[in-house]
Amino acid sequence: MLQYQADLDRKFHALADPTRRALLERLGDGPAAVSDLAAPMDMTLTAVMQHLGVLEDSGLVRTRKTGRRRMCEIDAFGVTVVEEWIAHRKAQWERRFDRLGAVVSEAKSAREKRK
Amino acid sequence: MLQYQADLDRKFHALADPTRRALLERLGDGPAAVSDLAAPMDMTLTAVMQHLGVLEDSGLVRTRKTGRRRMCEIDAFGVTVVEEWIAHRKAQWERRFDRLGAVVSEAKSAREKRK
DNA sequence: GCGATACTTAAGCATATGCTTCAGTATCAG
DNA sequence: CTGATACTGAAGCATATGCTTAAGTATCGC
């Protein structure tokens, strides 16, 4: 549970940066090497490497070294926890709205009866 | 578009903290005053207020002052952008997997033909 | 009115984040 | 072999974050 929270922390944090989201979008088209990812970015290779480090630690991206290049790719299952957390929250809110709705219609039918 | 990115930044950042996620879960049961939210937390009221400030700035929570109390509630539409961003990414990855699948089956039928 | 309640504001502080530069090390290509 | 390429690692630095304490202000309940 503690580990679960830490995982969500890392994943939401990883997603909370426009550069990292751009990297994920680029990686959505397919695997790429660090320098390919860095080329269009307006910052140093080192900075991009650090962002990739955050993404990898969060489990959203996997990388492996081949020769002198490090290939990066999306870990498609990485976002699942995030998706599920949001889905659960929405379900909770909707249950509440349903109950509110029930109360409202009860009140309404009570008014009907008095007629 | 710039504003869109900043909005995602704020929302993902707001969600990247266990205390703030706990506040959202609590608010999922219905509106509550700041001190009610702070009571079960292991930190000062001021700290909880600051977390609520982050949540409100991000558009995930709305608050209004009634008397000396400040009531807080979920803004159910606040997460929509976040949900959609994730949905779009997943769709992108899946399109890619489909194309990969197509390539694989083309190669396979090419092998079949050679038989 | 007046003390208790519910925030509010400001300041301070330790740590984390997002960058940079610079000096490596490990491949690869000719 | 040798120079270019592709990272890697360590510092350093400005700003942001997550907290705290302390001193307000504005209701509320008796």
What are the SSEs and their pairings?
2 copies of one chain form a homodimer.
Chain A: H1 2-15, H2 18-27, E1 32-33, H3 34-38, H4 45-57, E2 61-66, E3 69-74, H5 80-114
Antiparallel strand pairs in A: 1-3, 2-3
The first copy, chain A, binds a DNA duplex (30 and 30 nucleotides) through residues 13, 17, 19, 33-35, 43-47, 49-51, 54, 65, 67-70.
In whole angstroms, the N-to-C terminal distance of chain A is: 54 Å
Total beta strands of chain A: 3
Say what oligomer this is: homodimer
Largest interface, C-beta closer than 8 angstroms, per-chain residues = A-B, 29 and 28 residues
The overall pLDDT average of chain A reads 88
* Overall 3D form of chain A: elongated
Order of helices and strands of chain A: HHEHHEEH
Determine the number of helices of chain A (DSSP H or I, runs of at least 4 residues): 5
Which blocks of ≥5 consecutive residues of chain A have pLDDT under 50?
A: 107-115
CATH class of the largest domain in chain A: Mainly Alpha
Structural class of chain A: alpha+beta
**Please, what is the CATH homologous superfamily of the largest domain in chain A?**
Winged helix-like DNA-binding domain superfamily/Winged helix DNA-binding domain
Number of domains of chain A: 2
Structure description:
By secondary structure, chain A is α+β, with helices and mostly antiparallel strands. Chain A has 2 domains: 73 residues, Arc Repressor Mutant, subunit A, CATH 1.10.10.10; 37 residues. In chain A, 67% of the residues lie in helices and 12% in strands. In chain A, strands 1-3-2 form a 3-stranded antiparallel β-sheet. In chain A, helix 1 packs antiparallel against helix 4. The longest helix of chain A has 35 residues. At the A-B interface, helix 1, helix 2 and helix 5 of A face helix 1, helix 2 and helix 5 of B. Chain A binds a DNA duplex (30 and 30 nucleotides) through helix 4.
